[in-house]
Structure formats: C-alpha cells, structure tokens
Design goal:
The chain is of the alpha/beta class. It is built from 12 helices and 16 strands. The protein has 2 domains: about 200 residues, Medium-chain alcohol dehydrogenases, catalytic domain (Quinone Oxidoreductase, Chain A, domain 1), CATH 3.90.180; about 130 residues, NAD(P)-binding Rossmann-like Domain (Rossmann fold, 3-Layer(aba) Sandwich). The strands form 3 sheets. Strands 3, 5, 6, 7, 8, 15 and 16 form a 7-stranded mixed sheet that branches. Strand 9, helix 6 and strand 10 form a beta-alpha-beta unit. The protein binds zinc ion (2 copies).
C-alpha cells in the first residue's frame, strides 16, 4: 500500500509501505475511505515538534472494515466505520467515566494518511453506520474522528449551555467546529476570533453572531466590550499557543469556564492569576468516542455539516501539497482521497 511519511520539517513523502496486518486479536484493519491532514500535523511539519526517525503520519480516518482480530465482534468486514484519533477499549474505568481518550489501553492513531490502517482496540473504538453512507457525507463523518469531536469537547468542557455567551479562540478546523458545537449546545451569542475573511464567513454560517479580529489584550478588550465589561460565560481555546491561552483566560468572566483543546506548546499558567480570576479550566485530548453516536446521528440527518471545514480536496498521493497548503494558510483543512 501507499502512505505519507515525514522525513524532516517540510518533507512529506508518499511512499510504498508494508500492508498493515492484524497484530493483536483486538485489532481491525480498515481500507481508508477518506482521510485528511490535521492542524496538529503541522507542529512536526514546521519543526516545532521533534520528528526523530522518518515515520508515517495521520490520525483521522473513516473506512471500510477489511479484517478483524478474533476478539472483535462489534464490527465486521464490509462495514463503514468511524473511530477516534485515540483508541479505547470502551470498558475500563476511565472509559466508563466518559474519558475514553485516557483509556488504560489507549493507543494514538498515527498512520492514517494511507490506503489501509490498523486500528488497535477496534471493539471499543470503531462505530459502524447502519449502511454505507452517501459519499457526500464522508467528509462530515471524517471530521468526527477528531476536529468536530474536539470542538464539541471544547464547548462541553467550557460548559456552554442554553442562552450562554461563548467565545471561540482559533479559526482553524477545530475552532470552526467549536462554533457548530456552541450553537448546538444552545449558546445565544457566539463570538469567533478570526482575521481571515473566508473563515469568518464560515464561522458565521456555522452560527457565530459576532467576529472579533483583534488579538492579544486588544482582543480581550473587545470581548469585554461585547459582554457588559465582564467577559464570556464560556471560552473555547482551540489553538494551543501561550498567546491563545492568555486570550482565552482573560476573555472568560469570573465564574466562567475555559475549555482548552489546542495541544499546548510553551503554555504556562500563572497560578495566582488563575486563583483570583475564578475561571474554571478543563481540557485535554477530546473523548471523541463518548460523542460519536450522537454526532454521527447529527451528520447523517444533515443537522450539522462539519465536512465544510475541508476546503481543499486532493488525491492521497498529493498529501505533501495538503500540508503545504495548510502551512501557508491557503487551506483550512485538506481532505485526501485514496
Ligand atoms: Zn487531528
Ligand atoms: Zn478504556
């Protein structure tokens, strides 16, 4: 089979690789229907995260079950399946508590920009649809394996509720999905922070009521202006930089909550400042598996359209161009078709 391999910053190659095999009785192998490049793939691509030896890339996937291990009974060959970027048995105590992305048997997916993928913990990880969905729905379902699930978690962790005011920091795919989630969870006012015209437009179509283009302390001042001087009930931090986290913490009102889902890079939090702010803080890798059945229903019924974050579609062999386009911010998110 063929797949993407990162060799060095800026160096993604499309190579022939060994076909994945069932290594454990709890594995499944799927044939990729569609996959994509994630904003978090750009950290190693930009040299911000060390790469080490050349290795395959990709953690977002939907596909057709090819083969299952002897202990996998929940899905069978031929079915269309969706799974999280973090695999889980869905039975251990952390899974039962709803934190499947902290499963005691968790393995992160890392080889999905390829024709075929081995999925560990298949029984607990993969959710099959009743029938093969129409191809136009595949991008929306693919978004559930990470960005839409992560945006939902950001809104859930920030305790967005009916009538609330939510601020979304970050206009990447996760931030835009966070706007969808805030709307679905009943936020009355959704303030998206974005400087890019096309992303502002999509945010508005997804339910944003206000756009703030300022950043840093100016951005915070603008949020305060829009929220009666106190800040927002809920803030979704969808970037992971120190600046974004500062902006998020300062944009929440006393008693408000920040859900942070951008993988932190050089983020430090001042304990004393947090103490006096009365802001609640919760984040981490999204427990996508918890949300999958509900989000699959919302996509299949066309209630939400997270697949619209894919504004570039490429054949899988042009995966390197997908990284380049996202790195240069020419694309929000690149969809890859085997
Ligand atoms: Zn991702
Ligand atoms: Zn578990």
């Amino acid at each position: 089979m063929r797949g993407a391999v990162i060799h060095a910053p800026g160096d993604i190659r499309f190579e022939t690789l060994d076909d994945p095999k069932i290594l454990h009785p709890t594995d499944a192998v799927i044939r990729t229907a569609v996959t994509c490049v994630c904003g978090s793939d750009l950290w190693p691509y930009r040299g911000v995260e060390p790469i080490g030896d050349p290795h395959p890339m990709g953690h977002e996937y939907v596909g057709f079950v090819e083969e299952v291990g002897s202990e996998v009974t929940s899905v069978k060959p031929g079915q269309f399946v969706i799974g999280s970027f973090a695999t889980s048995d869905n039975t251990c105590v952390n899974c039962r508590n709803g934190f499947q992305s902290n499963c005691l048997h968790r393995e992160f997916m890392s080889t999905c920009q390829a024709d075929y993928v081995r999925v560990p913990n298949a029984q607990g990880t993969l959710v099959a649809t009743d029938e093969v969905p129409a191809e136009e729905l595949w991008p929306g379902l693919l978004a559930l394996s990470d960005v839409m699930g992560t945006g939902w978690w950001a809104a859930d962790a920030a305790e967005v509720g009916p009538g609330s005011t939510a601020v979304v920091v970050g206009d990447g795919a996760v931030g835009l999905c966070g706007v969808i989630a805030a709307k679905e969870l009943g936020a009355e006012r959704i303030i998206a922070m974005s400087r890019h015209a096309s992303r502002q437009e999509l945010a508005r179509e997804f339910g944003a009521t206000d756009i703030v283009t300022e950043r840093g302390e100016e951005g915070v001042a603008r949020i305060k202006e829009l929220t009666g001087g106190i800040g927002a009930d809920s803030v979704l931090e969808c970037v992971g930089t120190a600046e974004a986290m500062r902006q998020a913490l300062h944009s929440a009102r006393p008693g408000g909550n920040v859900g942070f889902v951008g993988v932190p890079h050089d983020v430090a939090i001042d304990g004393e400042e947090l103490f006096y702010s009365h802001v609640g803080l919760r984040g981490g890798p999204a427990p996508v598996r918890r949300y999958l059945p509900d989000l699959i229903r919302r996509v299949l019924s066309h209630r939400i359209e997270p697949g619209r974050v894919f504004d570039l579609t490429l054949p899988l062999e042009q995966v390197a161009e997908g990284y380049k386009a996202m790195d240069e911010r020419r694309a929000i998110k690149a969809l890859l078709k085997p």
